[in-house]
Each structure stands twice: as C-alpha cells, then as structure tokens.
C-alpha cells in the first residue's frame, strides 16, 4: 500500500495524528502495526481536508460512510484487505478520540465490516509433503565445500524456520548476536521467546563465518556487491523457497507451511499439545490442531495400536479393572 500524498501543514488534524501515534507506541504496538494504522488514518484525514474539514469535532456518520465508499469506488480499486485494515485503524482512532471527548464513540458503528477471504489456501494450511521434506533435508543437511554465502544462508534459514516455527515477520527481526535464543515482537505487539538447538546453531555459524559485513541482522539479502547488502525482506524469503523448490523439482511451499510442518513433526514425535502450543506461541491448545496435521504414518501407527489392543486379551482385562463397579468401561 502506497501512502497518500499529504500537504504537510501543521494543522489540528496533524496534531491529532501525532497524538494517536504516540498512544499506539505507548501500548507497545509493533512499528509495522503503527505504520499500518497511521496510514489508514491519513487516508481519512486527506479525505476530510478535501472537503474543508480540519477539525475532528465535525466528524459525523455521513463523512465516515462517504469515505468508505470513496475507498471502495476509487480507480484503481482498493483491495478489500486494505480497506479492512483502514477501517480497523479508524475504529481505533475513534476509540482514542472518544476517550478525549473529541468525537462520539457511537461513530464506530458507522465503520462497516469489510469481508475478506481467508488469506490461507488449503495448501498453505498443510505441512510440507513427506517426500518433499525428505528431499529438502537430504539436500540442505550436509555442508558442502563449495557452498556460497547464499547457499549457506538459505540452508541456515530453512532449518531455523523449521525448528523455531516462527512467522516470517518474527524471524526477520532476529539479530546476529542473539541467534541462539532471544525475543521477537509479534504483529499484535506482544513479545515471544525463541531458541534453537546445537544442529541449527552450527548451520547458522557456517553462514555467519562466510559474511564479511557488520550488519546487525541475522538474515540479510545478498546482492552483487557489499553496498547491496541489506536486511532480508519477506519477499526475499519467498524467492528463496521458490528457487529451492525449482532446483529440487518439488512443490512450492510457503513459510507458513514450514510452521505447520514444525507443529506436525512435534505431534508425531509425541510432544505434548501444551508444549506445541507454547512453542508456536498459541494461547489456546486447540489451535494446535490447525497446524499439526496427522500424516498417514501416524494414522497407520494408531491402527496398529488398536489392532494390537484387540488381539491382546490382557488389555480387555485391564479395561475391566478400570471400569466402575457394575458399569461399563469409561472412554474419554
């Protein structure tokens, strides 16, 4: 989303925008969230100025509805996801302004809920296919003698993302001097911890030894010369996975699929659901079921366990001992 052109005169709306931004930072929203909210507020203020309104006290339902219609009808059309983000920002602005008796809190009702499709496709909610994952591990696992800086970075990044289960926005915050454990900020502003084991740390040290720059970030974008070195962006991560999949001739995967794969592997290794939820930074254990998909191997293991249970008469006796007097076995 590109920022709208603004006339930078010190007006009343400018001061409101400044105060609102300060409040967002006090609440420890991430810098990306603050930028996103302020961008939405700016679009509203540009619209108000075009209609001669430079005082938030004059904000009313009709102006808010007309602003939303203008966003929807403009050329080129603004995507629903962007309009939804702008609406969320203005709702928070109204809440902030109402606390200061600048507007009526009821104006929040004028902001329509913008319906958007789920950003994840069915494929993105699936872990990486077993055969593809085996190819990736076999290709990236060994340290080859002629690996370039890019090769070492891609290898280290893959294993870091797979082991930590971090989202891409979280992983790109990691500093090179704190790569083994540290804290990163989630998109909502809260902080989460991460840590890695010795095997992934070795891959990262191989990558860092090949670097000659002094940039603080762990993950950097490598250009044709030192002047082109910069912090890696999420688009760069997508390109890394695209190239890797093309080279191996496998289905393209996303960083979010790596996150699903992390949860799935943990589930198959009998890691407790509560531990998986904590590792993936979920508040609700039930969310684990969205990330940890049971593969056919695990289903086969369950079938074999039940077959053994049925064949072995001693288990039936065990169930009988656990049953309440005069009652049936309890299945939970």
Percent of residues in beta strands?
under 5%
- Runs with pLDDT <50, length 5+? 1-9, 314-332
Q: Estimate percent helicity.
A: 40-55%
CATH superfamily of the largest domain: Intergrase catalytic core
Question: Taking strands numbered 1, 2, ... along the chain, how are they ordered across the largest sheet?
Answer: 1-2
The name of the CATH topology of the largest domain is hpI Integrase, Chain A
In round numbers, the mean pLDDT is 80
N-to-C CA distance: 50 Å
Structural class: mainly alpha
The total strand number stands at 4
What's the CATH C level of the largest domain? Answer: Mainly Alpha
User: Can you count the helices?
Assistant: 14
For the CA atoms, what is the radius of gyration? Answer: 26 Å
Assigned CATH architecture of the largest domain:
Orthogonal Bundle
Order of helices and strands: HHHHHHHEEHEEHHHHHH
Shape: elongated
Q: What would you note in describing this structure?
A:
With 332 residues, the chain is mainly α. It folds into three domains: 99 residues, DNA polymerase, domain 1 (Orthogonal Bundle), CATH 1.10.150; 169 residues, Intergrase catalytic core (hpI Integrase, Chain A, Orthogonal Bundle), CATH 1.10.443; 38 residues, no CATH class. The chain is built from 14 helices and four strands. The chain has a two-stranded antiparallel ribbon. Strand 1 and strand 2 form a beta hairpin. Helix 1 runs antiparallel to helix 2. The longest helix is centred in the first third of the chain and has 20 residues. The protein is elongated, with a radius of gyration of 26 Å.
């Amino acid at each position: 989303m590109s920022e709208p052109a603004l006339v930078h005169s010190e007006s009343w709306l400018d001061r409101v925008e400044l105060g609102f931004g300060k409040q967002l930072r006090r609440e420890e929203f991430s810098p990306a969230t603050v930028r996103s909210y302020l961008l939405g507020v700016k679009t509203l203020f540009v619209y108000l100025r075009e209609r001669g309104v430079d005082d938030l006290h004059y904000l009313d339902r009709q102006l808010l509805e007309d602003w939303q219609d203008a966003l929807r009808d403009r050329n080129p059309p603004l995507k629903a996801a962007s309009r939804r983000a702008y609406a969320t920002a203005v709702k928070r602005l109204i809440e902030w302004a109402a606390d200061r008796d600048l507007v009526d809190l009821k104006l929040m009702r004028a902001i329509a809920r913008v319906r958007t499709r789920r950003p994840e496709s069915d494929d993105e909610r699936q872990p990486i296919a077993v055969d593809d994952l085996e190819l990736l591990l076999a290709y990236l696992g060994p340290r080859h003698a002629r690996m370039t800086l890019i090769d070492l970075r891609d290898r280290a990044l893959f294993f870091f993302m797979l082991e930590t289960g971090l989202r891409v926005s979280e992983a790109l915050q990691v500093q090179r001097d704190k790569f083994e454990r540290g804290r990163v900020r989630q998109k909502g502003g809260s902080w989460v911890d991460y840590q890695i084991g010795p095997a992934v740390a070795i891959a990262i040290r191989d990558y860092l030894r090949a670097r000659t720059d002094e940039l603080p970030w762990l993950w950097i974008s490598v250009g044709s010369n030192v002047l082109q070195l910069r912090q890696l962006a999420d688009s760069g991560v997508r390109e890394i996975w695209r190239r890797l999949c093309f080279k191996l001739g496998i289905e393209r995967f996303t960083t979010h699929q790596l996150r699903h794969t992390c949860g799935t592997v943990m589930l198959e290794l009998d890691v407790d659901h509560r531990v998986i939820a904590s590792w993936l930074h979920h508040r609700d254990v039930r969310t684990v079921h969205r990330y940890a998909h049971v593969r056919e191997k695990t289903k086969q293991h369950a079938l074999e366990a039940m077959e053994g249970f049925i064949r072995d008469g001693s288990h039936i006796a065990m169930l009988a001992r656990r049953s309440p007097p005069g009652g049936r076995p309890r299945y939970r």
